[in-house]
Amino acid sequence: MKTICAWCHKVLVEDEGPEAAVSHGICPDCLNGLVGDSGISLADFLNTIEFPVLVTDESAAIRQANGETERVLGKPVRRMEASRIGVAIECFHAGAKGECGGDAFCAGCILRRTINETHADGKPRYGVYSDHEVATADGKRARRFRFSTTKAGNAVLLAIEGIQDLPIAS
């Protein structure tokens, strides 16, 4: 899957996998130009994006999200705000201890680690995959998330580029 900037169309990452699909992110230059110089509020900017985007702080807690996030994750943005990312995606391990990062399993979480690394070094990451056991109405399911991270000031924008249900292990 190829990821391109939705504004300038610069190729951000090109996976070598068999998928010919294209996903969209935002490059740091376009992000800075749109948010930094335009006078548009972050909330209004986020709602112009046609894929799920969450704004996280250094603890991977959600500070804002766009309307597409609400549609894809199936819960109101206001219920996600202040919770950590694992709670928002219904990670089974976040629910087991009541908080994302509270389970021994969480130490290896690629999603949390990638957000934290982007906060620490400011470098964007594109086309990252992370598998999670999530709680659903039908019980526990395995899901693969494809995402990118971009630092903007003191926040990291997490763009969810794809969610795929995985076969249930027997």
Description:
32% of the residues are buried. The chain is globular and about 45 Å long. Strand 1 (2-5) and strand 2 form a beta hairpin. The longest helix is centred in the last third of the chain and has 12 residues, at 110-121. The strands form two sheets. It has a five-stranded antiparallel β-sheet, with helices on both faces. The chain has a three-stranded mixed β-sheet with strand order 2-1-3, with no helix packed on it. It has helices spanning 28-36, 42-46, 67-73, 77-80, 85-88, 92-97, 110-121; strands spanning 2-5, 11-14, 22-25, 53-56, 62-65, 125-136, 139-152, 155-165. The mean pLDDT is 84. By secondary structure, the chain is α+β, with helices and mostly antiparallel strands.
Helices and strands in order, then pairings?
Layout: E1 2-5, E2 11-14, E3 22-25, H1 28-36, H2 42-46, E4 53-56, E5 62-65, H3 67-73, H4 77-80, H5 85-88, H6 92-97, H7 110-121, E6 125-136, E7 139-152, E8 155-165
Parallel strand pairs: 1-3
Antiparallel strand pairs: 1-2, 4-5, 4-8, 6-7, 7-8
Write out key terms for the chains shown.
alpha+beta, 170 residues, 5-stranded antiparallel sheet, 28% helix, 3-stranded mixed sheet, 7 helices, 34% strand
